[in-house]
Amino acid sequence: MLTEPLSALTARTLQNCGASAALDVAGGMAVRSPVTGETVATLAPHTAAGAGAAIDTAVAAFKTWRLVPAPRRGELVRLFGEELRRARQDLGRMVSIEAGKSPSEGLGEVQEMIDICDFAVGLSRQLYGLTIATERPGHRMMETWHPLGVVGIISAFNFPCAPWCWNAALALVCGDPVLWKPSEKTPLTALAVQAVFDRAVARFGDAPEGLSQVLIGGPDLGEALTDSTSVALVSATGSTRMGRIVGPKVAARFGRCILELGGNNAGIVCPSADMDMALRAIAFGAMGTAGQRCTTMRRLFVHESVYDRLVPALVTAYGSVSVGNPLSSGALVGPLIDKAAFVGMGAALDDAKALGGTVHGGARQPVEGDAAYYVKPALVEMPEQAGPVLRETFAPILYVMKYSDFDAVLDAHNAVGGGLSSSIFTTDLREMETFLSARGSDCGIANVNIGTSGAEIGGAFGGEKETGGGRESGSDAWRAYMRRATNTINYSRELPLAQGVSFDI
Ligand code: NAD
What we know:
By secondary structure, the protein is an alpha/beta fold. It has 14 helices and 23 strands. It is globular, with a radius of gyration of 24 Å.
């Protein structure tokens, strides 16, 4: 039970984080919580002129920040990680209020920010370039990595802060200021995170002004970042529809882009799979976060020999999963973000039925009144992969199909636009390795005996095809935030030319 109105809880949570934005601006941008459907704040959005000024401030910050030694830049990110640890409960609650996540998933998102800060601190002493063998005597060749410039970060509603931090923590140690355009559905989390960042800046002492800034508003503010030649890199997370607009715009001005777009992620359950493990992994992957993760499992191929064992057990799990207010009920499944998501889910289920699908679940639940949209997750048994199965519907729908031939199921697995995440459940070494091979999954993430969602920050995150091809977070994703120079130094008294070319004057 909540003991105070949601708007009061929101204001208190923001205040705890140190955010001072006016939350009741007349005629401002309404911020709605999916938990109850009520408006919890109205914010003053940025104007185009305000966005331009923020970009100018970031450009000025770059001129200073790029000269600060990388390990010292890492110190700021270390302090930010400390502040995030202190603000963990409040930030996690803010994520639950704005995105409707369970407390555990809200806190998990904050933990991801802390983890990437730790990673970035280590990275700040490891921005290595290569020394490369040269064909010319008395020469040395090497590559150096320099800060790139202002990084614009556009983020989606369903992960209101972690993907920002995957970008920001790396960009900051790489020497780049960041400008954040959060989803218009979740701007408060951004304001809270920015306030926590400002605490780290105050402790750090001599950071330039405007190293990290937030732009409040809709797609037009995102466009201010994509269109500005002063923004060296645009990292955009959201729908494929958005990526189709952002990608060509940034490319047209030869800017750099990281696109993290929609997925249509699948699992394959093979005859030798550990069925109990598969059941639990599929349940989390498909129903967790009410199906509103880019990595949510949306398609499931089950071998005909185990179909009658696994699918009825999944239907039972779908029937019994708890759906409720994430702030007060301890339910595993929270609300859809808004009415449009609910309508989209209904339309997809209707399309599936028209193609012969059998729908289990999917009904709206009477939780928190008419303005909130809670649904039972839907499992749909499909005769074949067609219609809505081929596209991402951002809601908890799992399409289940039977397969008999392993080669054919690999083809079916890859026959969709999205290329983000995938998984196979098997204890057969040949199936496992084939799935991970060039012949197997064509996704950026390919898992064995775990679900499609729940990635760790240490690996590079992202996907192929309509997912956009970007990589963020761990591994060598940092290179996207820096520019590479190849340097050749002649320490001899001769001037030999490469490829044996002669040019004697
Ligand atoms: P969305 O595309 O509606 O919005 C995402 C962001 O893009 C918002 O900040 C929005 O204001 C901005 N935007 C929209 N149009 C723009 C334009 N023309 N120019 C510049 N900015 C623009 O997505 P959403 O509904 O918030 O999020 C859900 C989608 O995001 C799903 O498709 C999901 O799969 C995807 N997603 C992908 C990842 C990933 O890492 N691959 C992570 C989270 C979400």
